[in-house]
Amino acid sequence: MNHPVESKNLFQRRKSHRKFDKNQPIPQTTLENILTDALRAPSWSNTQPWEVFVAAGSTLEEIREAYLAAFDRSEPYNTDVPVPKEWPEYMQERSIRNSIHMFECMGIDREDEKARELNRRNNISFFDGTALVIICQERSLTDWSTMDLGTFAGYLVLAAEHHEVQSVPAFNSIAYPQILREKLSIPDHLILRSGVVLGYAVEDSPYNEHSSEREALHQMVHFLN
Q1: Which of 76, 79, 100, 145 could form a disulfide with 49 if both were Cys (CB 3.0 to 4.6 A apart)?
Q2: How far apart are CA 137 and CA 223, in angstroms?
Q3: How crowded is residue 45: how many other Cβ atoms within 10 Å of its Cβ?
Q4: Residues 132, 126: contact at Cβ < 8 Å?
Q5: CB neighbours of 45 closer than 8 A, spacing ≥ 6?
Q6: What is the predicted pLDDT for the residue at 2?
């Protein structure tokens, strides 16, 4: 009978964290429980079009070091999936408001290039997360399957929260697919669609003070009775 209350708390509680405790690994059984729950995500005709690679321990540290080295060489990002070049104006406004608030929470001034560089390095090193989940799909699949992958990613972050593990979906996590393919033995017939960083959040870090806003229900949902 308490499930609706628990579910509401789960949805309201989850947020993106951007600083994790690097010295607190996620137990293997916990990772397996999170992924087992996430695999319950629905998909078109139960095709389950996701292929998932999880890096932790020494493998994740190798990837982190390789990412930082590429970043320090000013190597451009080379994602399998093109990034958006522009957003509709009203979406861009949401993004700008979110970024302003996030940097205010982190105490980073617009002109403080040193702090901004540290933030970029925090991003590219997976926020010190202790597990990295890379979500892939076959190249031959269509947007319908890509939508299924998005559903899986949503289940993943909620499953993590349920198991008291924090998360952040992160574009930077798939910035250098060639490194991920080498370290995780990801075959070429798979596209690297997205990545989610998992870990135990450093709750008192300024990086984790920010919580993004959501638009009001009546602005996003159209009821017609």
Answers
A1: 145
A2: 34
A3: 7
A4: yes
A5: none
A6: 47
Confidence band for 8, pLDDT divided at 50, 70 and 90:
low
The answer on pLDDT for 1 being more than 50 is no
Residue 40's CB is within 10 A of a number of other CB atoms, namely 9
pLDDT grade for 110, boundaries at 50, 70 and 90: confident
> Any idea what the Cα angle at residue 160 is, between residues 155 and 166, rounded to 5°?
125
- Cα angle 149-45-160, degrees, rounded to a multiple of 5: 35
Q: Report the 3 state secondary structure along 69-86.
A: HHHHCCCCCCCCCCCCCC
Summarised one tens digit per residue, pLDDT across range 114-138 is: 999 999 999 999 999 999 999 999 9
**pTM for the full model?**
0.94
What's the DSSP call for residue 27? P
Phi, psi of 187 (to 5 degrees): -70, 160
How do beta strands 166-169 and 51-56 pair?
A: unpaired
